[in-house]
Structure formats: C-alpha cells, structure tokens
Amino acid sequence: MFVPKQIKVKGIEDLNKQIDKLAKDIRISKRRALKAIGEGIRAKSQENIIGAKLVDKGDLLGSSYVSTGMQGLFRTIVEVGYKEEYAVYQHEGWNGQALPPFQPILEWVERKVGLVDEEAESFAMLVSYKLANKGHKAEPFLEQALDEELSYITRKMQQHMKADLIRTLKKR
Questions:
Q1: Cα-flanking dihedrals φ and ψ of residue 64, to 5°?
Q2: Is the pLDDT of residue 106 over 70?
Q3: Is the dihedral of CA 32, 35, 39, 44 positive or negative?
Q4: Mean pLDDT across 130-159
C-alpha cells in the first residue's frame, strides 16, 4: 500500500480541510465499490434467471436495476432488484392462498399457447386458479446471487477502496 512520506500542513485549518477531503474521498470510493458490487450481484442474478429457465421474452431480465444512495452522512445504501411485477412471485414463489396477478399470465398464454380473446382469458384464469390452489415453487435468483458473491464482495470492496485511496494520496 502506498503511504505518503509526508503531508504538508499549514496550520490546523489546513489539517482539518485535508482530513475532510480525505473522508469525502473515502465515502466516494466506498460508494463506487458498492455500486460495482451491486452490478456484480445483478449480473449473477441474471445468470441464475437464465439457468433456472425463467426467461420468456426477457422482461424480467430487462427490469433489473442497481441504485445507490446515502442514509445520513456515512451510510451508503445499494439496492439490487427487479421492477417487473411478477419478479417477486418468481423469486419468492406463490403460496397458493390467493390469485396471482392476472395480466402477466394472460400475456404469457397469448404468447406461448397462441390463444386470443375469450379463449386466452379462460385459459389464463385456469392457470391462475391452479397457481392459487397449488402454489408455485420459489426460484430465489437474487438471494442465490448474493450468497454466491459474498467473498467476491469483500475482495472487491478492498480493491476499490485501496486503489482510490492510493490515487487520492498520490494527488497530494
């Protein structure tokens, strides 16, 4: 690790400014590292979706996102998820206690079975009722990705923060 031989300080105000700048650089570095980690988890979860054969027309894959934000001054929040309405049902499964959302099932019936209008609606209702009665097995593609990436997360965080800190210290 690069350690500067000396830091030139011109009084306590200058020292405080340098410490504040370094703290800000560390927060920025941490946020970048966490964003990269989130992107890795998203990519792995997409691989899991494909591996579980949950891909129909790609809406689920295309609805993935990674967002970062701050909570307070020091806490970085990273969210990895899927915006598609049925994503939660694919991930968590369906417990069979209520009817699932109808529209995605209807669209699937029209696309995969080739039915239209009343026939498609009737068939989609049958599928909905079967899901409501029997449930649907969970495919926790996102949770699996997180579990698989835990050691990677630690290494990636260390690499990003070390590289950013070295760049920051070299600038001084």
A1: -70, 155
A2: yes
A3: positive
A4: 85
